[in-house]
Each structure stands twice: as C-alpha cells, then as structure tokens.
Request: fold
Amino acid sequence: MSHIDFTSQLHDLMQRVGISSFKALSRTAGVSERQLVRLRRLGVEQMRVDVLLKLAQALQITFNELVTIFSQQEFVKREDTSTNESQQLLQQIAELKKEYERSQQQIQQQRQVLLQEFQQSSLQLLESLLVQFPTAAHKARENPQLSAINIVPLVHKPLERLLQQWGVEAIARVGAELPYDPQLHQLLEGTAQVGELVKVRYIGYHQGDKLLYRAKVSPIPPQA
Reply:
C-alpha cells in the first residue's frame, strides 16, 4: 500500500485563505496540531466530525468539500486498495455526512428548547404583571380619579424580580446626583467634565462586568 499524504492539498487550501503555517491553522481552527498530522496522513478517515467542521470553517470551505478533497484523492493513491476497502471508506464518508446532518438538527432542536425554557421562565417571573396589570389599567380608564401610584407596583415588582433573576443591576436611581463618568453616563444635553455633578434622568443597567445601557443624565447648573 502506497504512502498517503494530503499535505499538498492542505497547503493549497491554507494559501487561499492566507494561513502561512500548520501552527497558524491549528490556532485559527482551534484544533491540535496532532489532528492536522492525522488529516495529512489519513485524510478524513477516523477523524471526529467536530474537528472536521472547525477545519472547514477555518479553510472557508464547506464540510462536504473538505470530505471530498481529503477522501477521493486517497482512492487515486491507493492503487492496491481492494473494492471492498473502497466501499467501506465510502460508507464511512456517508456516515460522517449523516452524523453532521444529525448534529445540525440536534443543535436546532436544542435552540428551540432553550428558547422555550427562557420564555417560560420569563413569563413566570412576569405572571403578576400579565394577570393583574390589564385589569388595573381597565379600572383606571373607567375611573379617571384612580391614583396611578396604585398601578406602579404591578409593573415595578415583576420587573425588579426579572432583572434580579438575570443578574441585571441599575447604575443609579432616577433623580440621583453623581459625578459624571462618560463610561457609565450619556449626556442628554449640554456638556460636562469628568467628575462634575450630573442628574440621572433615565437609569442605565449593567449585567456583571458587561455594560448594557449607559444612564442618561443632564448637567446640573452651578448654583449662584
């Protein structure tokens, strides 16, 4: 059996996308150099689907193209390969394609399940708002004298629980006066220097170390 070597095919694909070395390809694709050695020596045979998917993405080709390039060439080089061995390899390639299709389907299904779970958990946290607020709003329309302050807790409490569940915290309360920080604050009008007092008009939020929205603030005119 002649020696199998896919190095030239891999090198040509790397040149197309500007990858200069196998070490660079290893970093770009997120696979070990040992996997690259296996691909160069054996082609796609006995390689994991996730590794092949990463390599295809790094080389900017489709999964099917990768399988074709690193399998059909092998038949040419294996002049002494029997028909039975060829059929077995073809079957392995077909199984790889099927496994890829199954993995894609599973990923899509998992996304749907996660989305449904997210929606259900969010709806549970907002249950009191969803159930009580329409009735309160209806009563407010029927009785214009009804104080709006009675409706505020119906909105505030469920929203507060939802933000707490997600680890979202307010930067500052509305009306707070604090030193201006352009990293956390957005001026609605005028100008302000770092450290000058500004007043919060609309609160901002952060989630852990990630800033979601800057608080919108207004400069505080200097007192005479």
About this structure: The chain has a mean pLDDT of 80. The chain is about 55% helix and 10% strand.
